[in-house]
Amino acid sequence: MKNAWIIYNGSLNSPKIMDLVDYFVEEMSNRGVLLEKVSNLQIIGELNTDINRLIANLDLKKPDFAILWDKDVTLGRHLEKMGLRVFNSSRGIELCDNKGYTFEVLSEKGINIPRTIIAPLIYPRVKINDFQLYENIAIELGYPLVIKECYGSFGAQVYLIENFEQMKEKVISLGSIPYVFQEFISTSHGRDVRINVVGDLVVGSMYRESDGDFRANISAGGKGKSYIANQREEEIAIKAVKELGLDYAGVDILFGKGDQPVVCEVNSNPHFKSTLEYTGVDVGKAIVEYILKEVYL
Predict the structure, then answer these.
(1) What domains lie within the chain, and their CATH numbers?
(2) String of DSSP letters for 194-227
């Protein structure tokens, strides 16, 4: 039997995460692959001038490949240096984990995104005294605008700002946390589309809508239903995944003016159970089949 690892975060082994880890273990087993669950607290990389190796507190056979179902990009990079094929790549996960990086790449590649301004670096425990820059940002983007922390999931750490007092309060409270300012796409208030891309194909799409929130995320109270993405939406989603160097991802698309697709976010570790629940499309199986084809065929 062939063997592989699926790496999860040992400090964040919540049922929501572990359900997906267990899903992959079962699906790989059904295809003759022993997929071992490995916490990032169980293995750590050692760097040397002539060798890269792992220190582990459990007995592990070197795998044929690894699924990095986490954002520990340093560990992922170390595994790649050891010659392992890692899904998704450490670089792809790094670009998606930091939304500032994500939007920089997408903008550079000509992919339609909301107007975005990356907040200036603020050192920890430093008080902000000059707010002129933030006033200028508000003039550029207009109100309401969106403040989005660079690190966040499930629609959390995203804030709709209605006026300068709210903006000032949020800037002060965030302090040294990295974030971006974005224009608010009012034509997509409370609705978006999650397009799941595996390889060069769209394998399932879900329309998401919320009655009481500007965010459409299921985790934020939104509801989903099956959706057939049009050609423009599919093309922009596939291009975003490719330009970020990902094998698979969930791409969140907003409805711009005239329903022009606008990329809101790219998720390198998409939580595909909601897509299965609302649309019946098993994105996870498509990911498993893609990985095995990449590695063994």
Answers:
(1) 2-87 (3.40.50.20), 94-111+188-296 (3.30.470.20), 116-184 (3.30.1490.20)
(2) EEEEETTEEEEEEEEE-SS-S---GGGT-EEEE-
Residue 176 confidence (pLDDT): 95
Contacts of 235 (CB under 8 A, 6+ apart): none
- Whole-angstrom distance, CA of residue 98 vs CA of residue 149: 9
What does each C-alpha distance from 6 to 65, 119, 196, 226, 277 come to in angstroms?
9, 35, 20, 29, 23
Yes or no: say if 231 and 260 are a contact pair by the CB < 8 Å rule. Answer: no
pLDDT tens profile 37-63: 999 999 888 877 566 677 766 677 889
Q: Which of 71, 79, 84 is nearest to 53 (CA)?
A: 79
Q: Count CA atoms within 13 Å of residue 73 on its CB side.
A: 12
Residue 245 gets the label, from left (phi > 0), alpha (psi -120 to 50) or beta, of left
Region 11-36: mean pLDDT is 93
Per the omega criterion (within 30 degrees of 0), is the bond before 114 cis? Answer: no
What is the distance between the alpha carbons of residues 119 and 173, in angstroms, rounded to a whole number?
14
**How many Å apart are CA 206 and CA 295, to the nearest integer?**
29
Share of the chain above pLDDT 70, in %: 97
Which residues sit opposite 131 in a β-bridge? Answer: none
Task: Provide φ and ψ at 127, rounded to 5°.
Answer: -85, 135
Determine whether 280 is exposed, middle or buried from the number of CB atoms within 10 Å of its CB (0-12, 13-18, 19+).
exposed
Residue whose C-alpha is closest to residue 179's, from 141, 154, 214, 146? 146
Q: What is the DSSP letter of 10?
A: T
